[in-house]
Amino acid sequence: MGITSIAKLAFKERQRELEKHFREPLDLQADVLKSLVARATDTRYGREHIFSATKNYEDFRFNVPVNTYEELKDYIDLMRHGSSDVLWPGIVKWYAKSSGTTNDKSKFIPVSREGLDRIHYAGGSDVVAYYLQNNPKSRLFDGKALILGGSHIPNYNVQNSLVGDLSAILIENISPLVNLVRVPNKKTALISDFEVKRDLIAKQCLKKNVTNISGVPSWMMSVLVRVMELSGKEHLEEVWPNLEVFFHGGISFAPYRKQYERLITKPGMNYMETYNASEGFFGIQNDPADASMMLMLDYDVFYEFAPMEAINDDGTLADPEQVVPLEGVETGRNYAMIISTSCGLWRYMIGDTVRFTSVKPYKFIITGRTKSFINAFGEELIVDNAEKGLLYACQKTGAEVREYTAAPVFMDQDAHCRHQWLIEFTKEPRDLAEFAKLLDNSLQQVNSDYEAKRYKDITLQPLEVIKARAGLFDDWLRSKGKLGGQHKVPRLANSRKHIDELLAMA
User: Fold this and answer.
1) Is 421 helix (H, G, I), strand (E, B) or coil?
2) pLDDT range class, residue 414, cuts 50, 70, 90
3) Which residues, in sequence order, are bridge partners of residue 406?
């Protein structure tokens, strides 16, 4: 009996438990809220917000305000300096440096031991549980897992306390059993210089029997390109013939799918999306035929949702009364996600937006960020719109996009307003003007507000596409010390700060 056959038996009980997401989702969430409040009653935050008298959700929403990072920052800073029982019982030693922004000012998300075990590692385990359930002939554990990670540094002068990418925290604390089946080695995985790390990963993994790969699509592609350079092969399956799945997350996979399909041509290659962030592990694509993800309801995460109409342009909440728990969501609406977790994040707006595709069970897609959108002229363009528009333009022209960002041009010398897109192509369209027109038309099809503002070019002129030189976005991230790990290029912005910095480097 192979290792995978034995491992499958270990996941059977959990696969049965996951059925509760279909049968009793609201009971799962009620239990999570009750547990979180009870465990944090004697913390500073719990005393200040009367957790001892909080018996149900109505009490909870009355006693606890909705928070952004700014409201929790002072508490987190106390924790980072070694104070105990602040937002969560005990001393929290790990802090995930936020990957949700490329601004100079960073966020430090507490990651407790309970959060590691009952959120992040629970999510990773369930990804495998669902995958094995859907792929009974899998030989996943008969080879190695290539898992990309970031790096970490000491946290102030607190003993054994570190800050860094969430992926680095996960690797640092991972079970020794998992280390037996993962590559590269821990020392290489935690190197801070991505370009050095990329080369070492490729060299260490070249001769291994890699059956699965996990990471952010953009950074994983960079590593795989180096693997191909070293191997001299044309397709990845010539290097790793038993590769069967890519577990991906962090950014949309749509712009990268064609690149992966061109690199990996073997039939039956699987791609499985996850929604894991510095703040928690929230969703898993449990059905290969359905692009939406299952909302994971029995981790240490309690969910609430604010409709986008209740969100200000700066991403803050305008109307707390519109916030609803899980039972209040509707399909087809965009919501900002609010979470409470065993890492001490209480009614915390993480900045991501989702849309439910189903409520029996609760399944969703990520639609963007509360701050990552363009609404300079009332067009309310979100990342989900941008991804669909790019996908359409690429399909029609055969182009492939590596990175992009877009921002408004508020008024040029001719008093015209438009959207300006800076795009780095891995495969350029033959006619950039045609690509821009297709993108513009597609955005009008998927966003009625954008269509209205584009009507007869009265409010908005046709969008402009500028071709970025190869490596521009990497150079920009490098200049900010954010190349590698989980850092992302901001896709859409109401200000021109990011795009002007990029254009200045071009």
Assistant:
1) strand
2) low
3) 421, 492
Q: Give pLDDT, residue 413.
A: 58
Distance CA 331, CA 365 (A): 11
Strands (E), 36-130: 94-97, 108-111
Q: Give the C-alpha separation, 44 to 290, whole Å.
A: 43
373-374 vs 381-382, strand pairing mode: antiparallel
What is the CB-side half-sphere exposure of residue 44 using CA atoms within 13 A? 13
Closest CA to 246 of 210, 207, 283, 296: 210
Instruction: Give the single-character DSSP code of 458.
Output: S
Query: For residue 163, which of 83, 77, 79, 94 has the smallest C-alpha distance?
Result: 94
Q: How far is CA 504 from CA 405, 409, 475, 497, 500, in A?
A: 14, 16, 12, 11, 6
CA 36 vs CA 67, 280, 379: distances in Å: 17, 14, 39
**Percent helix, strand, coil in the chain (nearest 5)?**
40, 25, 35
Which of these ranges, 225-229, 262-266, 367-371, has the smallest mean pLDDT?
Answer: 367-371
Question: How does DSSP assign 340-381, residue by residue?
Answer: EETTS--SEEEEEEEEEEEETTEEEEEEEESSSEE-SSS--E
Sequence letter at residue 321:
E
User: pLDDT digits over 21-46, tens only?
Assistant: 999 999 999 999 999 999 999 999 99
What is the pairing mode between strands 210-215 and 182-183? unpaired
**How does the average pLDDT of the chain come out, rounded?**
92
Q: Residues 419-452: pLDDT tens digits?
A: 999 999 999 999 999 999 999 999 999 998 899 8
Separation CA 474–CA 483 (nearest Å) = 6
For residue 14, the model assigns a pLDDT of 97
Distances (CA, A) of 449 to 102, 383, 385, 454, 496: 28, 14, 11, 9, 21
* Distance, CA of 493 to CA of 485 (rounded, Å): 22
Average pLDDT over residues 309-323: 88
Confidence check: pLDDT of 178 > 50? yes
The residue behind tokens 């359409």 is 392
Question: What sign for the dihedral angle of Cα 115, 116, 117, 123?
Answer: positive
